[in-house]
């Protein structure tokens, strides 16, 4: 009996098929077709990577409980079904991945406004941590030393409130149907912190994948409904710009795409004041 057959038994179901899903970066993601109480259904199994579990051994139960809260709040997320250490089972949702569907930046902004309006109390999420320590050999292909120097000189300011953060909202973590956002996935980086942390990160991700016009459209839409302090946003843009440092080369990009993203990253940190 393989591990997925055993998992199906835990769910009171019979395993019909298991297919590895593309796109999982930090976790192995598999679709399971099962027969349960006479009905066939498709589930998604997320097996977290070793580094994530070292960082947060309780990641599965934490994400399960968060998804329960978000689903009850009416946000477009998968329904949590089951968890055990290192593994989460959710419903399977149809849709085209935003990395290939050309995600609508305005809908992403409105989603974040709804998420950031939730009360984080009682959700069991960690506080957003500070920047990771500077490495011995900074990634100067992305001007890491310059970014860190600018962050040192900037005051991040005090947020008006703390919010639930997705932590990694980019088009590849979304699903779309008929041009509408149908699901936001991959909540393992969720935390409590300044909502502009999410805004800065999604700005950079949209710049990478869709260009400056999409980034600006996202920012304007968020500003219509959410608190958008442009002075503090500079700090969070630079925090977001640190994330690819030392990692971009491992993202499996074509050389021409990587070079293009490096140029966009350079523009991004310049507009943030670095």
TrEMBL record:
Keyword Endoplasmic reticulum: no
Entry superkingdom: Bacteria
Species for this entry: Deinococcus deserti (strain DSM 17065 / CIP 109153 / LMG 22923 / VCD115)
Domain Aminoglycoside phosphotransferase: 18-234
Name of the molecule in the record: Putative phosphotransferase
Single GO molecular function: transferase activity
Pfam families reported in the protein's UniProt record: APH
Keyword Transferase in record: yes
InterPro entries: AGP_Transferase, Aminoglycoside_PTrfase, Kinase-like_dom_sf
Keywords: Transferase
């Amino acid at each position: 009996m393989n591990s997925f057959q055993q998992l199906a038994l835990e769910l009171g179901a019979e395993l019909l098929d298991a297919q590895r899903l593309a796109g999982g970066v930090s976790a192995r993601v598999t679709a399971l077709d099962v027969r349960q109480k006479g009905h066939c259904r498709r589930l998604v199994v997320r097996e977290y990577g070793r580094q994530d579990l070292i960082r947060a051994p309780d990641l599965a139960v934490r994400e399960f409980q968060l998804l329960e809260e978000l689903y009850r709040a009416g946000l477009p997320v998968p329904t949590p079904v089951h968890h055990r250490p290192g593994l989460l089972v959710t419903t399977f949702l149809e849709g085209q991945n935003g990395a290939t569907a050309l995600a609508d930046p305005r809908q992403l902004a409105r989603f974040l406004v709804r998420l950031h309006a939730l009360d984080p109390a009682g959700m069991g999420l960690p506080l957003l941590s500070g920047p990771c320590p500077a490495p011995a050999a900074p990634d100067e292909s992305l001007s890491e030393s310059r970014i860190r120097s600018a962050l040192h000189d900037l005051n991040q300011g005090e947020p008006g409130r703390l919010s639930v953060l997705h932590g990694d909202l980019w088009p590849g973590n979304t699903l779309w149907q008929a041009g509408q956002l149908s699901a936001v996935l991959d909540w393992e980086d969720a935390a409590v912190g300044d909502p502009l942390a999410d805004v800065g990160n999604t700005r950079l991700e949209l710049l990478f994948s869709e260009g400056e016009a999409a980034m600006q459209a996202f920012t304007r839409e968020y500003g219509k409904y959410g608190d958008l302090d442009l002075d503090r946003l500079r700090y969070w843009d630079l925090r977001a710009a640190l994330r690819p440092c030392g990692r971009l080369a491992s993202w499996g990009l074509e050389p021409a795409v990587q070079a293009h993203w490096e140029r966009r990253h350079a523009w991004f940190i310049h507009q943030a004041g670095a």
